[in-house]
Every structure is written in C-alpha cells, then in structure tokens.
Design goal:
alpha+beta, Beta-lactamase, disordered N terminus
C-alpha cells in the first residue's frame, strides 16, 4: 500500500512538473515574439487536456488576462456561419442548392446569372466572385446610412458587378464575398439578422459569442495590436460589412465548448446534427469544407484548420480527426512575428497530443 501511494505521489508531481514546463515554454515563446496576450487550449470530446492564459490585456499593461478575456475570431467565424446554415437546412428553411438569385432576383444580371451561386458553393469558395476583404475600396455612393444589414446588401449589389478573383491552385476562389452573400441568404430565409442567428447558437450550445472588438465594449477586455504593437482602440466599420465572414469574439472556454461539439458530433454525440452532418461540415470537401482547410503536419498527420486574422487579433483552431483532439490558440497581436510564435506553439501542442509517435508524449 505504501508503495502504491508513493507511485501515485510521484505520478502527480511529474504531471504538475510537465504542466509547469509546458506553461513556461509557451509563455517564453509569447515573450520572445512580443505577443501581449496569448491563450491556448487542447481539448478532446469530453475533456480539457490543456488550457491556459498568458500575458496582459494590452502592451505595457499590468492587467493580466484570464479565461474570462475575449478574443476576436476573424475568419474562424466562417465555420460558425456554416453551422448556422446547416441548422436552417435541417429546419427546412433553405437547402444547400438554393440559388442566391432565387432569393434576390433583383440582383441578377447577364454577367453573373451563370455563376452557380448556390448556398453550398458560396460557403466553399466554389464561385468566381470579386475580392472582398478589410482593405477593399467601396465607393462612398454605395455606403448608405442604413442598418448594417442594408449596407451589406448594397455592398453585395455593387461587388456582384465587379471582376472576379482568379481560381487558385486548389481550384478555389478565395474571397469573403461568398460568405457575405450566404449571410444575406440566411438572414432572408430565417427572417432574422445575423446577430440574432448567432444568438440562437448561443442559446442552443450555452455559450456567449459576441461581435466586434472586445475592448471597444469594455476597456478591461483584450486589446488587439497591429504589427507595430500599437493597441487598436476603434472598431473597423468594414468588420460589420464582413460580419458573416469574420466579426465574432469569444472567450476561450466558450469557443472550446463550441469546438468540442464538433468532436462529439463526429462521434455521433453532438448537439443540433447527426454524425453525417458534422462529417459533411468538417470533411465534406477535400481542400476547404465549410470554413475548414485541410492540412498535413510535419509528421504526415492530417488535420483541418482555420486561421483568423482581423483588427489586431489572430486565432488558430485545428481538429485532428484520428486523435479526436482540437488545438486552439488565441493572440492579441496581428503580425508576422505573432504568426511565427503561434506556429511554434501549435507544433509543440500537436507534437505532444496529436503526432503519430503516440498520444501524450512530450518532445523536447
């Protein structure tokens, strides 16, 4: 009995030491790459394997961040929009092959009528559409004083007349416009605005997604920083135009619950959908599927990922299907340096929990 308790004690000490070593390593990387705040999580379908918060809410601040701090998701919003779309398909309010011009016939022209603007194509970068991002120049005459929803409609009307992006090497048309158009479709068939549709997700999954930059709503919250490490203190109006493509913020615990629902879903235990629908959302297309890019790690292990980058924040989320593990990293700095730090931390966490050499091994 004494030997047994000695073994348990030594095991607990080893676990604590390994956890401390990992936390120190991550925080050292954060400091090296000048990231004011960084949060990480590694989750399975039923457990939190790692979760931590490092740094302060903004540069030169003494206010340490906690797991109550919020981070902007950027493009990781796309998976949430696709989740909403799947729910409305399940409810019979729309189907994957519904054409945008069926709902908005007044926007159809000879130039765009043959582009195949179905909901499923819009959500999977399958449609040749014009570029649309945070730096897209929109004429003042297009921007009205109406609601955000009315502004998005007018911007869509304008952009549908512009030259399309070229198909990339993976046969994808990479532009946020598809998600803008899909968002308009979801709003019309549900008779709700996008914010209300996200709030429905909040209620269904018992989480709290919000919109915009966290610090503009609460100065104690997390500030985004540009590449010069200058805190961003104002909202970017274009984020409201890109709402369904990238303007949600969340806490790490809430986002982990959302991602955990996918992990449970591919086991047939998720909320809202059956296993087949979760499989479709995550793996339905080989290169990009409903907000998720297919990737292959350095050890040959395949996974899916999305990386968000908006208004001073970066976010990375990866799901390893075979290991049934997800790795999430939040940063409040948008720069090449921050991206490098995030990539290194991802490799450390993926190597420990998801590499082919075995679950749970920590590599030095």
């Amino acid at each position: 009995m004494k030997t047994k308790f000695q073994f348990i004690f030594i095991f607990l000490i080893a676990c604590y030491t390994n956890a401390q070593n990992l936390s120190d390593k991550i925080d050292n990387i954060r400091i090296k790459y000048q990231i004011p705040a960084l949060e990480i999580a590694v989750i399975s379908s039923d457990s939190i394997l790692e979760m931590g918060a490092f740094g302060t809410n903004k540069i030169n601040s003494n206010l340490k961040i906690t797991l109550k701090n919020r981070f902007h998701l950027g493009s990781n919003t796309k998976a949430i929009t696709s989740f909403i779309a799947a729910n409305l398909v399940l409810q019979g309010k729309i189907n994957w092959n519904t054409n945008f011009f069926h709902l908005f016939p007044e926007l159809e022209t000879k130039q765009n009528q043959s582009k195949g603007l179905t909901l499923i194509n819009l959500l999977n970068f399958k449609v040749p559409l014009s570029p649309f991002s945070y730096d897209t120049q929109i004429p003042e005459s297009v921007i009205t004083t109406g609601t955000n929803q009315e502004q998005r409609y007018n911007i869509a009307k304008y952009l549908l007349t512009q030259k399309a992006v070229k198909k990339n090497n993976d046969n994808l048309f990479l532009t946020n416009l598809g998600y803008l158009l899909a968002g308009l479709m979801l709003e019309k068939v549900s008779k709700k605005n996008y914010n209300e549709l996200v709030n429905d997700v909040n209620k269904e999954l018992n989480i709290d997604f919000k919109f915009g930059n966290p610090n503009t709503q609460n100065e104690q919250q997390t500030y985004g920083h540009n590449e010069l490490l200058i805190p961003i203190t104002e909202e970017n109006i274009k984020l409201n135009w890109l709402l369904s493509a990238g303007n949600i913020n969340t806490t790490l615990p809430d986002y982990s619950l959302y991602i955990q629902n996918y992990l449970q879903g591919i086991e047939g235990k998720g909320k809202q959908f059956n296993k087949e629908t979760f499989e479709q959302l995550l793996f339905g297309f080989p290169i990009f599927s409903f907000g998720w890019f297919s990737k292959v790690g350095k050890d040959g292990n395949s996974y899916i990922n999305n990386f968000g980058n908006a208004n001073g924040y970066m976010s990375s989320v990866s799901i390893f299907k075979e290991k049934k593990i997800a790795v999430i990293i939040f940063s409040n700095l948008s720069s090449k340096s921050a991206k490098s730090g995030i990539d290194i931390i991802f490799e450390i966490l993926a190597d420990k929990y998801c590499s082919k050499h075995g679950f749970g091994e920590m590599q030095d």
